[in-house]
Amino acid sequence: xxxxxxxxxxxxxxxxxxLTELTTDLGIGLLQSSLxxxxxxxxxxxxxxxxxxxxxxxxxxxxxxxxxxxLLYAITGSLLSWRVGWPLVRLSADRYAHEADLRTxxxxxxxxxxxxxxxxxxxxxxxxxxxxxxxxxxxxxQTVFATVRLTSITAGYGWVALVIPIIVAAxxxxxxxxxxxxxxxxxxxxxxxxxxxxxxxxxxxxLADWRATATAGRLGGFQSPRAGxxxxxxxxxxxxxxxxxxxxxx
Length: 250
Hints:
About 70% of the residues lie in helices and about 5% in strands.
């Protein structure tokens, strides 16, 4: 991303705090999902032995059939959710950048309020702040629409996951090789494994935010040796006209 952009002082502190909280929450969630997966994947693998498929006079079973089905479903859902949620990386980075610009514009307008009043620059200062505010609102609207699209994917993933194990195990049940009680045990173990594997789907928005905070030109750009010079609005000198993002004052 090269340069870390305008007003880094308004962003680096907030980004550091936000990145720490995100990393902690995502790490704890990943650990819990890993423990759940380790606890139930062996159970599901053993229960999969009861699933025997019949085609004419031929009968066969697939080792770990339900485990592979859970993995395939989780990978499909993860790829789809990341494809839909990918724009949130750029939107999050843009939102934080424009919020920093808005805070800076407000602070500088407050610092040079006397100069703005003496030079009758209130209207220009208002237009400058309103322009920054409109940028923030535009990014927020795009973020809302992107989040709604991602939520539809994650919610649909959860609803479909309720019937997937029944559909996958149905052939063995209807052939008589699997009793109703065994079917329920398979479904229960599948749901536990699926709950662990859906960590990525449930945390796609958080991962996009983490990536935007860590690498999308903010903290990552600040730490990178390739980052360009830090650009900050020039402070007014004594005896010169103060400027607030294009607003002049004495």
